[in-house]
Amino acid sequence: MESTPHILIVEDDQEIRTLVARYLKANGLRVTTAPAAREMDRILQEARIDLLVLDVNLPGEDGFSICRRLRNSTPLPIIMLTARTEEIDRVLGLEMGADDYLGKPFSPRELLARIRAVLRRRPDLGPGYRSDRRSRQFAGWRFEPLSANLSSPSGTRVPLTGAESDLLAVLSDNSGRILSRDALLDLTRGRAAGPFDRSVDVLISRLRQKIEVDPRDPQLIRTIRGNGYLFTAEVQVE
């Protein structure tokens, strides 16, 4: 089986597609490109893709619509490319299930770093991308970071995006400790937060919707005003 991660870039700007594809290939990744949704859908049907790099501003079906559609049917990791000045694009992308975002203009080196960070949790992509995080239980929930599987106290499987799984892993690894937004972003994405970066807040909100009895009055993930977030549940690691 082919072990080299296969990246699909969906970007309507041919110059950007060519530049990024050339750089990623030079750094050991398999790369396929598409200019729009129709070509992307055909490629997804014909080939195994390990990660999707998706531009927001595409002709026809835009990146937000594509992300929402794919997230309803596949756990395929998605990194969205957004306009640097449009913070709402980044928030919307995360709310629709993207694993990460990168503002334009960007360097191919930074995109490569983001791709590698997202792929590290995939257990099937070889030793360079393998996670060794163990399963754990908390408040009746069972969570397997390696496969991003989360089961409720009743046994119902609750789907997680890769970014949500990363965040829950960090929170449950640090139960009882207050973690700042900067610390959470660094631990989950390997980068510092920008002055207007709301990605952690968006992901916290999404996790609360999935694991809290009442997301409006969260008990498992508490906000510590002025300091960050606290995961309160006792965690048993297997």
What does this entry look like structurally?
By secondary structure, this protein is of the alpha/beta class. The protein folds into two domains: 6-128, Rossmann fold, CATH 3.40.50; 132-237, Winged helix-like DNA-binding domain superfamily/Winged helix DNA-binding domain (Arc Repressor Mutant, subunit A), CATH 1.10.10.10. Helix content is 37%, strand content 22%. It is built from eight helices and 13 strands. The strands form three sheets. A five-stranded parallel beta sheet has the order 2-1-3-4-5, sandwiched between helices. A five-stranded antiparallel beta sheet has the order 9-8-7-6-13, with helices on one face. The protein has a three-stranded antiparallel beta sheet with strand order 10-12-11. Helix 4 (87-95) packs parallel to helix 8 and helix 6 (162-173) crosses helix 8. The chain is elongated, with a radius of gyration of 18 Å. It starts with 5 loop residues before the first strand and ends with a strand. The model is unreliable at 123-132 (pLDDT under 50). Keywords: Activator, Cytoplasm, DNA-binding, Phosphoprotein, Transcription, Transcription regulation, Two-component regulatory system. This is Regulatory protein VirG. Residues 133-233 form the OmpR/PhoB-type domain. It comes from Prosthecodimorpha hirschii. Pfam families: Response_reg, Trans_reg_C.
